[in-house]
Specification:
The chain is mostly helical and 181 residues long.
């Protein structure tokens, strides 16, 4: 049983790290698999600590590579971004508790986009000098971010479908993977 559980966790981690590496493929800004992989980890990895560690480690590794290769991996709002992804992992726990199905997964993808939008843009407002620290400044920050929301939502919907769909195909091909972890 431990061997099956370890194989399941290793395969889940592999799927998550592979998705994180998709950040290196040219893409529309914010149309990445990161929100989807956080949701996927929360919904599929039964050990809560690992559900946080695996996607955040994948994100950290990809950010480190982006920083080394292009100087864009780390920024002043990175704590807010990682916090948003931790909340999305928590949303994945709710998806798992309700029951993983097309409607709950789709709802999770929409929720993930909303969480990222609210937390990351609040972080921009709080952590940078770009906007005055007033209600009008906060509104301006959120308004300026709306175009990015649509690509975040598209990325979360597409990548959530890819990750959960691919995992379902893998899981059905290996009955041992159906065991909880």
């Amino acid at each position: 049983m431990n061997e099956e559980r370890n194989m399941r966790i290793a395969l889940l981690a592999g799927v998550i790290f592979a998705a994180a590496m998709a950040r290196f493929v040219p893409h529309v800004p914010n149309l990445t698999p990161v929100g989807a992989l956080a949701l996927f980890a929360g919904a599929q990895i039964g050990r809560k600590a690992l559900a946080f560690i695996v996607p955040l480690a994948a994100l950290l590794l990809s950010d480190l590579i982006l920083e080394i290769t292009a100087g864009i991996g780390f920024h002043s709002t990175i704590g807010w971004v990682y916090g948003a992804f931790a909340l999305i992992v928590t949303l994945g726990f709710l998806v798992r508790k309700i029951g993983i199905g097309p409607l709950t997964v789709a709802g999770g993808a929409f929720g993930a986009s909303g969480i990222f939008f609210l937390v990351s843009n609040f972080g921009v407002w709080m952590s940078t000098p770009l906007y005055p620290k007033t209600a009008a400044g906060l509104a301006a920050c959120f308004t300026a971010a709306i175009p990015f929301y649509w690509s975040t939502l598209a990325g979360d919907i597409i990548w959530t479908g890819v990750l959960f769909g691919a995992w379902e195909v893998i899981r059905r091909s290996r009955p041992a993977l159906q065991a909880s972890n």
